[in-house]
């Protein structure tokens, strides 16, 4: 362990033994300068800085974790952590004994420990300590072991594997190519052969297509935002090549599985309703499969927007009622909105480049209603659909 890591770890251990500092921060009503002055009368400068940062991160962490107010993370580990609802969905496939390589602060580790005995492995000693403390917070520490080690030094290959490769292995920011992950594609493929089954967490924007033959690729969205691509392998892989899963903010889970070539839907003019598909469906390539299942059509071979004459309910589509169909040019749009009763306007576009704020400034929005302007290519022609959200 480097002296820097040791110093950081020692600071967090001191902080762990001084929980009252967070109560002082919570109760303080003055300025941050006054707060820091008050805290430094009792605690060291490093401890105060760490406490204030963690207090801020715990507030941010509420978007991912139900017990964020008691958890331990730094900025990078919180940013990279899997949201709790996504972790719980993935963990339900696991049982027995599991290794969680690159476990970080323990987001996936905690969920896995509710179904299996889990050994977390991470190169960073501070993150290993966080993972241990966070497993205590969630009451699963009896099912958790944590090892501070390089994963190459772990020779045991019994049971199953979950791995979250580092997507920020260098100081230059996120990488997209799996070959640039740490560990990279070659090691990931070796691990697939060595374990009986498991899951690899990837960015949904990564170049996963065709890289993991014989596996199931699941694209997972949470509340309409695609969070990850999970590569299921071995005895945890399903019998379909692709899966799209949508998880609502209340934890409801819906999945659709198949192959992008399983269905082709018709192209039609806009009906009474237009649908914006969940990004997990789009990224998985299962747009036509989902459209066929729910009886809707596509507007254009290049556009993801769907349409129907009758209203369709689906967890994979956001529905809009079409009010008007206009050419996509400033003159027609300005004329329309001068007489329309819209005071709020959501502008949506996928394939056609639009400066949304510049367009919004050109339109008269002096009414009371909330509208949606969808700019899309309809069978090769750029159109503007005036809609309202259902």
TrEMBL record:
GO terms for biological process: 7-methylguanosine cap hypermethylation. The keyword Transferase applies. SUPFAM superfamilies: S-adenosyl-L-methionine-dependent methyltransferases. InterPro entries: RNA_cap_Gua-N2-MeTrfase, SAM-dependent_MTases_sf, Thump-like. Keywords: Methyltransferase, Transferase. It comes from the Bacteria. CDD domains: AdoMet_MTases (cd02440). Residues 318-389 form the THUMP-like domain. Pfam families: Methyltransf_15 (PF09445), Thump_like (PF18096). One of its GO terms (molecular function) is methyltransferase activity. PANTHER family: S-ADENOSYLMETHIONINE-DEPENDENT METHYLTRANSFERASE RELATED (PTHR14741), TRIMETHYLGUANOSINE SYNTHASE (PTHR14741:SF32). This is RNA cap guanine-N2 methyltransferase. It comes from Gimesia fumaroli.
């Amino acid at each position: 362990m480097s002296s820097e890591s040791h110093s950081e770890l020692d600071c967090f251990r001191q902080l762990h033994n001084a929980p009252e500092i967070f109560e002082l921060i919570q109760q303080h009503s003055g300025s941050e300068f006054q707060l820091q002055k008050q805290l430094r009368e009792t605690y060291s400068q490093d401890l105060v800085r760490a406490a204030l940062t963690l207090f801020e991160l715990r507030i941010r962490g509420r978007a991912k974790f139900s017990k964020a107010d008691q958890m331990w993370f730094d900025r990078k580990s919180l940013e990279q952590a899997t949201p709790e609802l996504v972790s719980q969905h993935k963990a339900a496939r696991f049982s027995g004994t599991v290794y969680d390589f690159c476990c970080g602060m323990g987001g996936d580790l905690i969920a896995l420990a509710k179904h299996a005995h889990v050994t977390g492995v991470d190169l960073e000693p501070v993150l290993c300590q966080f993972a241990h403390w966070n497993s205590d917070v969630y009451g699963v520490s009896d099912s958790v072991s944590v090892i501070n080690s390089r994963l190459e030094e772990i020779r045991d290959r019994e049971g199953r594997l979950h791995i979250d490769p580092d997507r920020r292995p260098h100081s230059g920011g996120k990488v997209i190519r799996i070959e640039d992950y740490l560990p990279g594609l070659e090691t990931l493929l070796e691990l697939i052969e060595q374990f009986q089954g498991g899951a690899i967490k990837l960015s949904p924007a990564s170049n996963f297509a065709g890289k993991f033959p014989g596996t199931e690729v699941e694209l997972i969205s949470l509340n309409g935002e695609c969070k990850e691509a999970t590569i299921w392998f071995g005895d945890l892989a399903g019998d379909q090549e692709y899966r799209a899963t949508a998880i609502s903010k209340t934890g409801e889970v819906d999945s659709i599985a198949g192959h992008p070539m399983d269905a082709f839907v018709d192209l039609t003019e806009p009906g009474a309703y237009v649908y914006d598909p969940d990004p997990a469906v789009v990224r998985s390539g299962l747009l036509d499969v989902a459209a066929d299942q729910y009886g809707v059509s596509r507007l254009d071979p290049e556009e993801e927007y769907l349409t129907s004459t009758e209203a369709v309910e689906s967890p994979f589509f956001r529905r809009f009622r079409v009010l008007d169909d206009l050419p996509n040019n400033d003159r027609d749009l300005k004329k329309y909105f001068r007489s329309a009763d819209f005071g709020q306007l959501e502008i949506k576009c996928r394939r056609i480049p639009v400066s949304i704020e510049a367009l919004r400034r050109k339109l008269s929005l002096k009414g009371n209603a909330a509208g949606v302007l969808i700019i899309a290519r309809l069978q090769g022609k750029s159109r503007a659909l005036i809609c309202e959200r259902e």
